[in-house]
Each structure stands twice: as structure tokens, then as C-alpha cells.
Design brief:
Length: 511
Amino acid sequence: MILVLNLGLKSMRAIVFNEKGEKINSSSLPVKTILRGDFVEQNPIEWWDKGVEVVKKVISETEIRKSIDYITVTSSSSCLVTLDKFGNSLRNCIMVSDKRATQQAEELNNLNIFKEIKASSNNIFALPSLMIPKIMWIKAHEPELFEKIEYFLSPNDYFIYKMTGNFVTDILNAEKFYYNIDKRCYPKLLFEKIGLSEKKLPIVKDIGFTVGKVEKQYKSKVGFLKASQIKVVLSTYDAICAIFGSGGGKDGDGCDVSGTVSSLRVLSKHKPNYFNKTIFSQYVPNNDFYIIGGSNNLGGGLIEWMKQCFYTAEKFPYEIMEREAQNSMPGANGIVFLPYLMGERAPLWNNTARGVLFGLERFHSRGDITRAVFESTGFSIYHIAEQIKSQGHNLNSIRFSGGLSRIKLIGKIKADIFGKKVYIVDEYETTSVGAFILVAISQKLFSSLSHASEIIKIREIILPDMVKHDIYKKYYGMYNDLYKALIPIYRKRKKIVDQVYFGKSENIENL
């Protein structure tokens, strides 16, 4: 059996799969997020403690505990963990949606030495969400702590170190540190320029690499049998794992994975014609294709926000939200919602953007507002799809998974916005399934990706309504126009908010 630890933005999950990819047992616990202005953080110590608890629970049955052969870890990318020489966490993790390193990203972008990195096939660019700008921010603002840091890691790498004692990362997580996948090296000249030692970054290995065996201390902590020889195998970060877990395997297969955030990516056999700096292009050498696309800042997180704001008194909030939104009209009776509650990543990369409800009138209801929020989850990924198609890549099909896929109306809205069939994947935990598949292929349980994809089942196919598609084209145009008109006002708002509310902090459970 294979145990997958999946650290999402709102929960720590453990899932056990048998060799056929069948889910045998699962367990999860929520994790807290700390929000303060541009700062978005989580506590790695909390992750570890809850990771231990969910593993204990998921292997509580003796037969499962005896049968675990492999463990892998997947989590969000570009979340920076810092450890001292003893392997202790030195500060909260700076999360992917954190925007504090905007100035450092601009400094990077202006360096002549950075041009070579921008020209690489990774399609990596200077963004505050990536690892190196965050490291530069720590060096500038927390210099004493910077000197104590022995390792900079992703959450995946943090768990692997705690389990095995080895500092290792996979090739796609390493790209977030500007690792060059063609030359198989970190950018040494850039690191010298910014004062970063390559020794502080993990060793890079291919996906499927066996890092080592689980140490005795971890076995004892979670309750594995002392004699068991459990191996830890590299998978990669969640958005990529979810593509494999959605069953995509052909050129033009698109995967919309909507958990707390939404990720839209397409598989392509064609190298990008030019580098579009609004989305990522990542080459996967083992399977000889490119993964084109990106992630926004909130997908399913928008629904959690709606629930917390307007539906806390309801016994069955999600069912009521869906029913009320269903009773509204396409276009939410004239309301457009910009879903940028935490700024936006792909394809806008605008840290100052914020959420907007536009077009409210006296007759509007709670259901109209909910419908507008539902529709924004489709508009935001359609925006990414436009950038994918602008590079000449096909988007032949859309496989929809993640927690948001459990709301049928949202799947219908997305089909109508895209004007394409939407395939609802039966197992919504596609990130964990994808991590399982990557390990299973590496251990020869499946002969190929196409062979492994046979375990993926489609629960439902949603057909588009082309009349509604025409309506949504008009609303999508207004959605874009509204954002563009607000860009200067967003900047003005940020200056005022920084002056008035600087230092205010919020703890959020179930982001």
C-alpha cells in the first residue's frame, strides 16, 4: 500500500491506497492561516503535529499498518520553510499567496543576470510568490534570522526531511528556486549576486526517486511496526499531481483542479512559441510533454468565505447556497463579482487587486450574490484558458476535480462559460491520487501514465448550454473591463489601507 500525505492550504490529509489505486482509508485535520496585510503564513510545527495525528488515525487498523510500503508527500508549491542546523523550524512558513516580496521581485527582474533565467524553458519569472524573492525579503528584513538558516525548503521537503533525515526535493519544486531543468543546476551566478549559498537548498532528484527509508523515530511516533521497511518516494507539488490524478494523458487534456485555489493546466506536446509571462510552462522530461497554465489565489476558498459571511446559521450551508444560486439567472441578475479577495496570481499577478461586487440593486437577493461568486470561479479560470490558447496550445477537454467539483451547479456554470463539455472526475481528491500514480509508476506497479490513468473514473459529463454561453461571453467581457478600470483605484486603496490598518492580523481556520 501507498500512503499519501497531502498538505492543502486548509487541511492536512492522509490517504492510503492499495496497489490498484483504491482508497482504503483517509483522515484529515484543519490547519490555520495567519493573515496580516500582505503577509500570509502557516506554522510548520502545526503541520507536523497534525501530520502525525492523521497518519496515526489512517493506519490504526493492524492490517493497514502492516501493509504500508511507500510514503509520499504533496503540498502547495512556493511555500518557504526555514530550518536551523538542527532541523528546527525558525519561523512561520511564508505561503504562496504571500505578497511581501514585491520589491525583491522587482529588484530581481532588473538584474542583467536574471535575463538568462527568464530565457530558460521553465518560463519562470520574477514574482513575489516564488522562493528566491521571499529569501531575499528575509535577508533584508530579518538579517539575524537569515544567518541562522541552514536550509530553505518547500513543505514537501520539510516532511521528507523529518521522516528520513535527507534534504531532497523534486525537479518541479526546485524550479520555484529557479533551478534550470535543462542544465540540471541552480543559478550559481545569481545566487552569488544576492548572497545565497547553494548549500542551503535541497539536493534535486527526479520525480519517483526513492529518498530513503522512514527513520525509527518517525515509525515510533506514528505507530508503524518497527520491523517494517517503508520507503519515502518523491512525487511533486499539488497542482501537478492533480493533473495525473485527473486522468489527463493526451495533448490538449485540460485539468481544472479547484480546492482552496483553482488550477487550470493543459498537457501539450508542443514547446511554447514564446514565453507568456502570465502563465507557467513546465517541461516534464519523464513523460516528454509540457504542462501549461497556472493557479489563482482562491477557488473553493471563495465558497468558504461566502459560507462564513452569509450562511453560518444554516444547517446545510452548501446545499442552500447551491439551491439559492440555482434560482438566480445566468449573469446573477446583473451582478459581477471580481474574486480577488487575496489579490490574484495567474493570469493577472496583481497583488493590490481585491474583491468587488458590481451592479448591486435594491431587488437583489443573497442568492444573486452567491450566484455571482459561483460564476466568478468560472471566469477566473477561463481567463487562464485564454492565455493558454494564445500560445497556440489546444484545450480539447476539461476534467474538473477538487472539493469545488462536488457542487454540481459550479460544474454546469463552467461548462456554459467555456462552451465545452466538463468531465467530473469521480474521486475529487485528485492531488492525492496523482501522487499515488507517480509513486506507483516509479515502483513499476503501472507500466506507463496511460496505463495508470485507467484507474481514473468519470462520474458525470456536463454538456454546455450554448445560449447561456453567449450570455456569459458578454458578462466575461464586463468582468475584464471592470478589473482594468479599477487598476489605478486598487493602488490608491492599498496606500490608504496600509496607513490605517497596518499590523492588523487575522487567524483563519479552513481558508
